[in-house]
Every structure is written in C-alpha cells, then in structure tokens.
Amino acid sequence: MCARVRIAEVAAYCECDVVSTYRVWLVHERFRGRLSRAEFEASEDNLLGFLQERTEAKPHLLHALGETHASTGSKHASTALDGPTLPTSPTEPQPAE
Predict the structure, then answer these.
(1) Which pTM does this prediction carry?
(2) In which domain, by residue range, is 46 found?
(3) 17, CA 20 to 30 Å: which among 44, 67, 79, 87?
C-alpha cells in the first residue's frame, strides 16, 4: 500500500491496530490483577469516548468501537469481560462455567 502511495489507508489501519493492541493490553492487565474491574471499565470508557469524539473526522475508528456499540449505543463494546468473570489475581481460580 505504501508503494502505491495509499498512505492514508496505511495510517487508518495503523490507528485501528493501536486501539486493538491497547484493548488486548487492558484485558491482559485485568487478568493479571493489575487492574480492577472498575479500573478496566473506566479505561474502556475513556477509550470509547476518545474514539467517539474522532469518528466524524476519522470514520475508520468506528470499526474500533465495535458493531454492538456503534449500532445500539450501549455503554461498552463487547469485551473479554462479557464472558466468565476474570480472576482478581493470577492465583485466584476462575469459577466453573
């Protein structure tokens, strides 16, 4: 894409990739017990607000908001926390499903 001088598309891809990587890191930190559920949700809310403020100028960021969030206006996009409860520390066992 760079060779074809499609730099704007490369930049858009990279922006979405950064958002996805940050969200994976948040889940990782939550799993390790370094973030409480409230801290995780506050970080996710801050990110979603940041993205929403920029979607008019950068519509590719709608992808990072997730289909559920963008179409229903729900507070949180689907995250790993929607499934089984994550342990609060690395040594705490997860509840059986």
Answers:
(1) 0.64
(2) 7-75
(3) 87
